[in-house]
Write a structure and sequence with these properties.
two-stranded antiparallel sheet; 2 strands
């Protein structure tokens, strides 16, 4: 979602750090990130930013990238895109 477009979020929007943008681009997952609902995009960024240690930030970025690549998880929980009526077993 373009940054100037309203997202409907009620919480403050978290900015995307350069290292996250670079990681998404390197793994060619920016489109997968942008296809997620705004609340998920914002939650991922806030979760990564709140890490106190660099190792934790890296672990969280990698988890986000893996979840985006797989397409079926959000914060380690099962997730399906809107429009899918039946959920796989």
């Amino acid at each position: 979602m373009p940054e100037n477009q309203k997202s409907g979020l009620k919480r403050a929007r978290n900015p995307m750090p350069v290292f996250v943008r670079n990681a998404l681009n390197e793994r060619e997952l920016m489109d997968a990130y942008r296809e997620r609902p705004p609340y998920q995009q914002n939650d991922y960024l806030g979760w990564i930013a709140r890490a106190k240690l660099e190792a934790t930030r890296l672990k969280r970025v990698n988890q986000m990238l893996d979840e985006l690549q797989g397409g079926k998880l959000y914060m380690n929980m099962a997730w399906w895109p809107r429009g899918i009526r039946t959920r796989p077993p």
